[in-house]
Predict the structure of Myb-binding protein 1A.
Amino acid sequence: MSVEMMEVSVSSAEPLRPARILQQNRVFLDFFWDLANPDQEVRLKAVENLIQYLKTENKADELEYTLKRLVDGLAHTRETARPGFSLALGQVLSAFEDISLQSILDRIKEKHNLQAVKRKLARNAMFGNLFGVLALHQSGRLVKEPQVVLGCVQLLQCLIQHKQHLKDLPSKTMTDILTEIPEEVFEEVLLSALEADLASAFRTPEQMQLLLVALQHFPQALKPKKLKKLLDSSTIINADNIPKLVEVLKMAAHSVKKERILPSVALDLLKLSLKEDSFQLFWDKAITEGMFKEPSGPTHYLSYRLLGSVLPLLSLSQLKEVLSGEVMMHYGEHVVSAQKPDRFKLAPEMDTYVSDFLQNCQDSDKQLAVMVSFSSLTNNGYPVVPSVWQVVQHLKPAALQSYVDWLKGTFLQPQPDRLLDFSTRKQKDKSKEQKESSIFRLRKWIVARLASIINNHQVKKHEDLIMDVARLLMSLHHMPLIDDSAAVSQKRSVGVTADGTMWIYHLVQYAQLLLSHPKHVQSVQPFSTEQKQAWNGMLESVANLKSKAKKGRTTESAAFQQLFLLIGMLLFKAPDEVLDIMKDLQSCIDKAQEKKINKKKKQQAMDKEEPEWVEVMVDILLSLLSQQSRHIRQVCKTVFSSICPHVTAAALTAIVDVLDPDKEDEEDGAVVVTDDGNKTQKKLKDDDDEEQDEDMEDDESEDGSDEESEGEEEEKEMEEGEVDQNFRLELMKVLQQQNALATEEDASSDEDLDDEAMMQLDKSLSALFSEQKKKTEEKKNEKMKLQKERGLVRDFKIKVLDLVEVFVARQAGSPLILGLVEPLLNIINRGMSSGSEQQEQDFLRRAADIFRNHLCRSKVYCRTAGDRQGELHDLLDQLMSKAQKLSDSSLCLYYFSASLYVVKVLRGAPPTETKEEPTADGAAASVNDLKFMGSVDVDRVSNLFREALISFMSRRKSPLTSQMFTDLFTRFPVLCVNLLDTAVQHITSGVRGHQQCQACVLVLRAMQSRDIQQLLSSYEWTQLCEKVSAQLVLGLGQVGQAESKVAKEKLVKTLELCQFVVKNIHQQKLFVDLEQLKKALQTLTSNVSFKKTGKLEDTYWAVMKHFGVMKPKVDKTKPNKDSEQEAAPKTMKGFLPETKKRKKRNKPVLEPVGDKSAPVTKPGEQKGMTKKKQDKKTKQKRPADGSAASQTNPAKKSKTQPDRKAGKKKKPKQKKGGEQM
């Protein structure tokens, strides 16, 4: 088909083609090419356009040609083309109803006749027949012509035999046809034709599917009597047919092994069992007993998929029975065993089935039954579904409430007999204490399950349910059921209820209620007197804050309340550590409120040495951040954002000192990073995600293997590591004491030690080596401890960066923000040279982001730094000198950005008077705005940046880049004007071509800036153009052969600058002499060889165009056809050109070096290309034995003999030509 299409497209371009249709319209023919396009959108558009075109033109010859092309295209070799032609044919038949379907079916059979087609094209012909039937089916007219339906079914029955190519496509097509025809047509026309297939329904899944579809759509035609005649039984599902059905299901399971889907025949059989009231028989005998006889594989997976698919079809009683049977047990074992790597996991599919069921089910009882059944499927007490199972979000409120009640009841009164519990073979060996551990594991899962329900914001839940669960989790701390559940109370939602009350406040109230009933609730860790006073003081302080907040609600009072409540809850976890924090917090709040009421009295009464309340508050926040808790981190961030306006320099210094790398080793003792609670939190996290995995494997074997691997690692370290000299001396002493060390005196003696001496030596060596092993382990443990401490410190610093980020965002206009510039740069500098650990990289990335994006690029900045001019200028001097001494450009960029930020702060905002001037003086006002530099010492700052620019232009390896100075010129045009002369000088005086190139770039960017053009007067602009043109003349005079990439880039940038200068001088009609520049440009062609195209050549001629010199046009000469034919003679079809024969076999191809640069004509190039292709072909065809390759077929030899003689005559000419070249 592709060959025919190619011929049609070629012939359409020839005017002498007799076919009239192909000469009419190129657009019409393109439709058929688009039908074979791999893109589905293009194919669909082509079908639509083809139908519209045929309806518009309404020409019989074009319609006939269309039908021919579409029928031919059904057997296209390209897989994506066949559906396109089939769809087009179906749409054409639907649009033109006068076309007979029988005629099209006859065409399809004739064109794609399997008996007459060649063997190589048999597969394409099969697909042609199949897609032809699909086209007839898609036309929608198949019902109107029953005989065509019969012909299609008969054709499909023939295609079913070729299953290796078509798989089950013919059967599916036949099934689709049955679903659309009326019962009369089936009974009168198809029943007799399909009788053999229906009678053999138990042989293959396809035939069973055909019978099931016929039963579903034509119940009157297939009554029990008819079924009795066909199948010897009036029903499909009965005790006698169960073995046959099992075999059909097994075949269906193996047929979809690669697709990993549920075969439709299985689901249809299950639906039929529900209809025939034989579901229990089918599920128990066919599925539970029949499908699980084989080892784990496709049959098991079919059963699991059937279990998920049947959920919407069952009643409540059937759901409970199915979800508590053996199929669920097998599914649980699959989930457990599939946790190992490289195992197929069906759990995600089951989650989808359950999620779809819960989403579409309106019955709360059914939803509850499914949730309870899957939560009751446990492995040694631990449910196989995860504790964060997302399907819970589809539960209705009533079902959710009942499910939570079931979880609470199971936690308080576990009933293992009601669970569907199973154990693996390894776990069955360890049966001791299994009951207690299974209850413990179940309770742990329930706690995590309840917490995940509360944390999932997509679950629709009432506040009463949230509070109920939160109280249960809170009470677990006081109930001696679980020792590790103290940290569970930390997992709560951060936020408020509908009435504005914080969730943590409700928990504190519930804790107070539990503490006030000691008779009913016994605390695991009772409060001491001092701790009880702290708890009561916390409640009193919160009450006072709430009462004051009602008068004037502020964010500060809410933040203080949240912090108080958080520290109060921490009393249950670490009471001794929290007592001092509670006292300091109370003092801070009292001072803060006192400061608001009467600042003067407070200042008089306060001792000078006593720190500000904000400083104490910052210390409290830093101490809280040292603990491993996400909730504490969020609360500290919220509280600090509320006290940001009150932060003093000393408080900010305390934060910066924590981050300072130079003070990392100092023993401050102010903040100690603790790992308390890490064990409990890590345990809880692992319980949610990894507890199940750990219990699926044999713990003892894993521990043993771990010990062996550790021992092997230690042995490797002992072997590969350096030997301790002290250990060597001790070993020598032991050997000398036992006379076991050979010396020169007794080297010749052959006497050995006696048994007693050997035993003594063994004891001494054993003691020595055991002591050495202890030392090695101590060193290893100490090293791991140091690594862990470093990780905790780094994690703590990342949290402290939260406070810095909040301060920079909230107080960007504060003068204190300038004190963060140097510390952040110091952090980035140390981070660049630190290790490549992930935690180090995260810390560095976070600090760099805060500095660059939040600080330097902030639109809000300090505008009240007028009294710190000298300090800021000194800081700018330090930053620029440091930037020039660096070796890394990426680090230098941060220092340069800091310098620009300091200049921006010094400049400040333009005066408001200039903005309010009338529009008539708008130009003058804008110039004044450009000249405004505020408190900047322009001369001093210009000298600093000039030195940096000279350093960049005069050093070979400078960390500075041209982009840095481009940013400087763009943001501060006044400084750019002062630096322009320096940049112009280095157009020729740069240390290397790269620097000279960058000087051209900087000058060009500056001259293109409108701000620079406004700042310079006409005289200054003319002088600048003269200086630049003079430097360009000198630079062009230095240009040699621009072979290197740097030289070419420099020349391009020089020409771009020339183009702008010359164009600007001509447009503004400036009095600048350009004659020298023109001469330098004209002489450039003698030094540089220009090609026809390219950026360099185009830029050069664009410059010369301003001087009136146009690019010379090259006349295109048509190549002589006669000479081409002589150079490349026509080759005989099926034979190699004579110029390429036997060359490689006669002598090796060794081209001289000079031939590479020699000019070659076009025919020679073509020969070289074909020669390479032919060499590849000869390598593939030539056998390993050289002698066999030389023996040729005598028949072929006689045919090609005359051509070889002609080739031999031409060879000497080619050699001579090659030598002359």
The mean pLDDT is 77. The radius of gyration is 45 Å. The chain has 61 helices and three strands. The first strand starts at residue 377 and ends at 379.
